[in-house]
Queue: 4 jobs
Job 1
Amino acid sequence: MEKITEIPKWDTKDPSPNLKRLDNDQIEAYEIHDLLDSSECEKIIDLMNKNHIPSTLATSDGAIKNSTRTSSSAFFDNEDPFIKSIEQKISEAIGIDVSYGEPLQGQIYKVGEYYAPHLDYFNKKDENIYNQFCGDRGNRTWTMVIYLNDEGLEGGETNFPKVNVSIKPKRGKAACFRSMNPNGRMNRLTLHSGQKVTKGSKYIITKWFRENPVNTHGNSNPSSPIETDDLSNIKASDITEKHYFSSIEELPYLDKKGVGFEKRKLPEHIWKMAQEAYDTLLPKITTEDPEEKWITSVIADEYGNNVCDIMSFDLIPEKRNKIHEALRPIVQEWIGEENPITPSALYGIRSYQKGAILDMHSDNFTTHHAGCIVMVDKKIEEDWALHCVDHNGETHKVYLEPGEFALYECAKTRHGRPEPLIGDWFRNFFVHYKLDNWEYKEVS
Ligand SMILES: [Fe+2]
Ligand SMILES: [Fe+2]
């Protein structure tokens, strides 16, 4: 057959004839039965049982909400010939070279565990997250999931709620779907969930493929973990010892007073800058589009409705940089010079509306290590407390007036506003810094 359009380098070229397209024209999804045999499934389950940790989640708004993904993740030894053979099978079935894959990951879902609706690819509009997770490799293009068990298992289907597709776990069966169309556009309709397991435990392995192969730098190991890009213009890392971490727990506590947060008044010049930014942005306030905002948001009213507007600092990049730089020495002084920091994120002024609840969460532990919450303006009937959990696990309520701010260890200090907002609106912004000498590394 003649090729009518050029197939992108990353795309599937010679897929297995056993791949059966699911009956849906809005997403491109396939099933392949018995990709793995029972002994392979058993062997992988065994490896997963020996080595797993609670799953975490990177989100576009810098939050890690464990209740979105309640499973455990397992990682494999990519040098193990058995794992290599599985990788090879997956690659041949989908028709994409192994070098385009991420390291294989396993997930275990016990009774009651699930994965809320999400997209597998990263939001390009969120530069920090995108650069952090995509770097040289580009976005995720295809996903393949293989179900390792079904006996005694109930629930745990992979659902695509926007297109009414549901895939039932079956031992050895693979399901794959395309996130990126051949023209480079992402398909939002691939939104999917791992339904709650109601009986037994669900074991799956997941393989994500990327736009670019891993060995662009002559790396001979195609299955090695993604190289994380050093995008944070690291200054001190050359002269100070470098640490690696793969979870929040491995990060150091920073507040030497042993609390994790502290309320202060903004210096006059910074408060002026914040007010100027607010004045400029207020006419441009927009509702955060729930489609754009990704489903992983932690802000909603009790029914899950979007009750948050945003005044994006994207519109005033220079002012953003100035505010980020102006607050840096204050945060730096608070955590001490021995832990140098670099600005990592400052999204915009969030305007919470009546009924808003900001769930307790910790911020993205890869890039949000220290920072502040700057209170800008409020029109309320009752003050709205920020809840912060200190190093000892005790929760405190912090009340902020315009011109005040709270320093906090964004990743280590769990925080939120779990009581519904009583009043018209409440506006603040979050300023994040990354530790220069601590680098996130995926567990392999
Ligand atoms: Fe997924
Ligand atoms: Fe947060």
Job 2
Amino acid sequence: MSAVYLLLLLLPLISAQTYHWGACPTPKLQPSFNLQQYLGRWYEIEKLPASFARGKCIEANYSVRKDGTIRVLNAQFYKNKTRTAEGTAVVHDMREPARLGVSFSYFTPYSPYLILTTDYTSLAVVYSCIDILRLFHVDYAWILGRSRFLPYETVSYARELLMNEGIDLYRMKATDQRGCKDN
Ligand SMILES: *[C@@H]1O[C@H](CO)[C@@H](O)[C@H](O)[C@H]1NC(C)=O
Ligand SMILES: *[C@@H]1O[C@H](CO)[C@@H](O)[C@H](O)[C@H]1NC(C)=O
């Protein structure tokens, strides 16, 4: 009874996200993931879920800081301005190198950042899921490219991979990468 009550309290908070009944799916991760090869710039091709207020030209640059931590620099163009956010990625357990955590502030816990597959040179498929009492979960997914546009076949391959892991792509949406400033 109390769990159901808590659920009713939590639902309005997360209704803007993609939530589903049951625990998080446990997708297969990229075997022997190599973080060094993953560093550098990735462009967001598609994202789950698509929110209303969001920018275009979304990209992230992963690099190693002098102290050895992994820097994540997100950038997007929104309301006529390039906006950036800096975060940190960690590998919690070297035995599972494709299971990262990313945080954008000291005050927020690391969110899961799972690399389901990547060839390092064109495509990466990333998934994140948070269990709430194992009653339901909120999830996020990204199809990332080394270029702003990926061939249709590559995107459908990535979508199929996510769907085969039981991930609901109903609210997946393409990111606008047209007319972006390149440097
Ligand atoms: C990514 O960030 C690193 C460190 O700041 C920088 O040296 C590098 O040029 C950036 N790469 C791209 C593609 O923006
Ligand atoms: C957006 O920025 C450009 C270049 O800085 C400027 O010319 C234009 O007037 C701006 N548009 C708006 C709606 O602020």
Job 3
Amino acid sequence: MLRLAELAPGARTAHATGRATVTVKKYGAVSGREFVRAAVRAQDGRSRAALVTLRPAAYPHAEAWLDGLARCAPATADYRNPSASPESVRLLAEMTRTHANGVPRQSDGSVGWSVPGASARVWPDGRLTVRSEGGVELSARLEGAEWDSWGVAAAADVALRLLCAPEARHITRTSEPSAWYRPLDRGHVGGGRERKGNQSYDGSSTARCSCGWRGAYPSRLAALAMAAEHRKNSVVV
Ligand SMILES: [Zn+2]
């Protein structure tokens, strides 16, 4: 159990995550201006893969945030900027309402998005910030070129799941069916239920939820119905 509030100014502690160990140090002797710095190691246990700054309001989430980062951290870290692109991170994150293209990039290269109760922003230099509407912030500086867009998106998902409003824990979406296609374009012949000229019809759709649930269905209507069913069955705590 990581008790950051009880840590004395200047004191250090280590936190075992089940992956690499996280080292923690408290700064700031003046009450109310204190903060904690945590270093999350890469899976090889050597180099630092993330530097985290935690203000007191974030202490209750610190353990889950650091554990989540340790799970997402790449095998090694080399102090270079992540190879992730902010636009791709935004598109790969599961905690999002829509995956529409055309995400606006700010002049500083960052991309942001929000879910009910919380918002995330990712910068090309590896900074990741997630804020709740209540002002709690979980942020990290992700280090190393091995942080790809999938890894950064997974880290953003961890923080968004911790800070979002309860209704955001089950944001579902369904994929657009690919519709009419030429089987030869996919490297096979036939297989579609219907035919138009030399084309086949693929109406299948995948339903996904921000909690990780997913299912594949023969039509988008079926996917929408199952997504609604999933939301109904998911107990909102
Ligand atoms: Zn769900």
Job 4
Amino acid sequence: MLKKTCKCGKLINYNEKCCSDCAVQKKEQTAYYDRYKRDKESYSFYRSKAWLDIRAVVMGRYNGLCLYSLFIDGQIVPADVVHHITEYSKDKSKALDIDNLIPLSNGVHSMLHGNYTEDAKRMLLGLLDRWKKEMN
Ligand SMILES: [Zn+2]
Ligand SMILES: [Zn+2]
């Protein structure tokens, strides 16, 4: 097999772009950059006026209560965060959709994010429905 040198100086097969070490390094750099770009984007989103406005509307709509604590635990607990049921990173078109937003306490919020399944999303949507049906 014909050989050539990788940019790091290692000898590699002619049909390869770079050696395996460089390939791993490049992949890590790309992953890091993607993450950095995503973080920057969500950082500015969560500081935008549009978000702060809708966040205030959601808090007002549900009296600032954690709906999970209310319906699942039967407890009155003030909400700390407004959570995107379909995550912001997954679908930006739902970022400001009031039917995709739910107020939660910090404890419930991190518990949910620890194992965020499709079932968990359905359960949260069900809590919004219960509020509509039972609290109006
Ligand atoms: Zn290399
Ligand atoms: Zn969340």
